Amino acid sequence: xxxxxxxxxxxxxxxxxxxxxxxxxxxxxxxxxxxxxxxxxxxxxxxxxxxxxxxxxxxxxxxxxxxxxxxxxxxxxxxxxxxxxxxxxxxxxxxxxxxxxxxxxxxxxxxxx
Amino acid sequence: xxxxxxxxxxxxxxxxxxxxxxxxxxxxxxxxxxxxxxxxxxxxxxxxxxxxxxxxxxxxxxxxxxxxxxxxxxxxxxxxxxxxxxxxxxxxxxxxxxxxxxxxxxxxxxxxx
Lengths: 113, 113
Fold this sequence. Notes:
The structure holds two protein chains of two kinds.
Chain A: E1 5-7, E2 10-13, E3 19-24, E4 31-38, E5 42-50, E6 53-57, E7 64-68, E8 74-78, E9 87-94, E10 103-104, E11 108-112
Chain B: E1 3-6, E2 11-14, E3 19-21, E4 23-26, E5 31-38, E6 44-50, E7 56-59, E8 62-65, E9 75-77, E10 86-94, E11 102-103, E12 107-112
Parallel strand pairs in B: 2-12
Antiparallel strand pairs in B: 1-4, 3-9, 5-6, 5-10, 7-8, 8-9, 10-11, 10-12
């Protein structure tokens, strides 16, 4: 089975711009979660989607949003980028039930200048 | 609240040495516990998991036992290799509520030949 894929792998944006990141889960997985990884804050949960519905949201400003499509693929969007948004954004997929083993993609490295 | 505490790194060992990385947690309810590993430039790989007290997770020579009485999930390996050099993350997820992983700060392991 193919693993979780994320595109693009690397991105450079300017402050004030917006960005969209994409994640394709493992086939058959219906849950997609997003995490932000930074040296200072570590790994922080952004949100989780299951069957196109957001089930959980972390403590991030409204500039961070996401959605999930009927094929379980997910996108996250960050508007009005700030320097502090520079991070590795990781997507994880799971079956979505209480087993909850989450499998991660390689991440998208976002640099905001 | 729920949290995970890991020992500070880096941990530097010689090849074939014994490895222990300490992890303790605070959680209400009955969490499942995980160890993930991150190699340079990559996403997180699930290393092992345990879903209830006294469970032992094991994979690739690594093992960890879910100790409810000491709220711990220490990672051990009997003989490390240079290829084990990576950052190791302990994490928990509460099965009775949110679907988000809560991570420790990570412990960098460096194995010298």
